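Re: the 210-residue chain
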Amino acid sequence: MNKITKLSLATVVALSLSTSSAVASQTEVSANVALTSDYIWRGMTQNVKDPAIQGGFDVSNGGYYAGTWASNVKYGNSTLELDYYAGYSNEVSGFGYDLSYCAFTYPGDTSLNFEETTLALSKSIDGIDLGISYSKGMNEATDNIEYSVSAMGIDVAYGDYDKIGTYYTVSHTRTYGKIDATLAYSSGLDAVAGGIDENSKVVVTIGTSF
């Protein structure tokens, strides 16, 4: 889920093309697409445990970036999630940081729309990647804090989605040419039809970027 208010990819590209050739040469445009056995977000299935097709576009220049991302969902009365986001990332004294804004929108049920600002910090120590991110919900949306550790090809994340519950994910990704295959185990609260229940599941995702 991701965001940037009312600034479409076409607008970003148009703005970047109107800059000097030196700046334009630093601008990168990329896209991604994936198929997943279940769209899990913060421990919750967004598609009632059915497969989902997902994809997005990103534009970056230096540490600045903006993009949009979409997935089919079964959430409220919506069958589509469309996110917009923008941010800035950099590194200082070996510490990485990323400050971003994201708008989660649901065209079929706008009552579900919400926005977040996120500050993420990261540090690599002897081959171990450590991370922490804090997402502040806007307009009374729920806050979230997440901790992550990556080592020897295994990624582990634990989060506390305030007022909703905690969750964790353990995953491993293998790359075959331009294809990334991820096997993940997730446990947490599931937003399913008829209420919220706790469940654990194995999720397989295959994707690529270009």
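The chain has two helices and 14 strands.
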